[in-house]
Amino acid sequence: MAKHSVATAKKKWPLMLLAFLSISTVMVIFIRNNSDSCNTKIFEAQQTQIHSSAAAGGGNGGNAASGPSPLDFMKSKLVLMVSHELSLSGGPLLLMELAFLLRGVGSEVVWVTNQYPAEHDQVIYSLESKMLDRGVQVMPAKGEKAVDTALKADLVILNTAVAGKWLDAVLKEKVTLVLPKVLWWIHEMRGHYFKVEYVKHLPFVAGAMIDSHTTAEYWTNRTRERLGIKMPETYVVHLGNSKELMEVAEDSVAKRVLREHVRESLGVRNDDLLFAIINSVSRGKGQDLFLRAFHESLQLIQEKKLQLPALHAIVVGSDMNAQTKFEMELRKFVTEKKIQDRVHFVNKTLAVAPYLASIDVLVQNSQARGECFGRITIEAMAFRLPVLGTAAGGTVEIVVNGTTGLLHPANKVGVTPLAHNIVKLATHVEKRLTMGKKGYERVKERFLEHHMSQRIAVVLKEVLQKAKHS
Ligand SMILES: *[C@@H]1O[C@H](CO)[C@@H](O)[C@H](O)[C@H]1NC(C)=O
Ligand SMILES: *[C@@H]1O[C@H](CO)[C@@H](O)[C@H](O)[C@H]1NC(C)=O
Ligand SMILES: *[C@@H]1O[C@H](CO)[C@@H](O)[C@H](O)[C@H]1NC(C)=O
């Protein structure tokens, strides 16, 4: 791979990157700062095209409209989507993706946002414009029109547990008429969602759709033990990578360009080994424990006198304003251990593809119950990266231990095992590359958009059946 023309490349790189991203796609990664576990606080990677040429189906993604889709039976069905909020966070973006998939097969889709800020919000404005461009109708969450639509709809999709607040607030006494056609999509397992106020209607809806088996099991346990309620029919639907992400991941020229330029901007050499954690920086995501493990791995390499390329740790998802104390703690650790030249902090960013194209290993170090699903994991695998992940949450359903990556325990006990795994992948080049390849194959087998569509189609069919017979 090229190591030449560093000076000219340096000037060109932001431009090229921009150009590259604007013609293909923009990966929106969302980052929130709450300090708990699943979904919302996560730097959950979502792919969405945020500019209108791509949104209009242009470019080489234009084949999307052709060919049968497993969702074709949804043609001309009226679907009401209830989002608890509208932002660049995992939950709403995922629901938007589904809205576009359904629009693609000719469903009539109406979108309401339950929590709406009082003042003008640029993000909401642009997301709504994007939906309108794609023929999604956007209407106020409250009022007669919303109630009428709910009554008329073939299907109502509530997104996240918090959206449950909308049911009583808006439908009032008509709620029982709507419940039999509600599909409740849940992407979280944080304790404070287990409130009767949010989920009291859960047992009476047509179905619940959850992103991983672990999360589904957790919901079954918690609703029974804490709230004394029973889950409805529950479907586990693993997510899939968008076509746009796969296009970048499978474009070796684009990947090489991105790799060279990102590495140069970080000041690392082409053959250095990059281990990256790509998540909003917060204790729950385990950047602190990752850096400790990274430091231990450097010590191991020194002790064993291993001859290896230089190892680097990349922390993508920094936000000094949001998690100041934790961020300071990470930097203090790096200074104390004198590993400044080996650790790189990258601000939270909308584009993950350049980083995935540039690194050698993804570290998924989410703590406690882990990720609900963890979309960055399948995105990294699409880029043929092995994953070092905590044996928790959705990660264990994605990463095959020993085949597509290596798992280590969550929490402090996982630090040393992770350090050993880092050394293992640094030492065994062949193993690292094979794991990456196996990860890519696994993505191609089960974590693509059309797999997700198939899985969702099965659920929607059943829910429509039930709604009809109720
Ligand atoms: C659910 O409860 C069962 C039995 O109490 C337990 O074995 C299992 O680990 C729990 N699962 C989760 C995800 O909490
Ligand atoms: C990263 O964010 C901080 C503030 O949050 C800002 O001061 C800094 O300039 C940013 N760095 C880059 C490279 O954009
Ligand atoms: C992963 O596999 C390794 C051996 O390849 C094993 O030592 C470790 O316990 C496994 N971890 C989990 C969580 O299964």
From TrEMBL:
The keyword Transport does not apply. The chain crosses the membrane at residues 12-31. InterPro entries: Glyco_trans_1, Glyco_trans_4_5. The lineage of its organism: Eukaryota, Viridiplantae, Streptophyta, Embryophyta, Tracheophyta. The keyword Nuclease does not apply. Residues 260-442 form the Glycosyl transferase family domain. Keywords: Glycosyltransferase, Membrane, Transferase, Transmembrane, Transmembrane helix. This is Glycosyl transferase family 1 domain-containing protein. Gene3D superfamilies: Glycogen Phosphorylase B. PANTHER family: GLYCOSYLTRANSFERASE. Pfam families: Glyco_trans_4_5, Glycos_transf_1. GO terms for molecular function: glycosyltransferase activity.
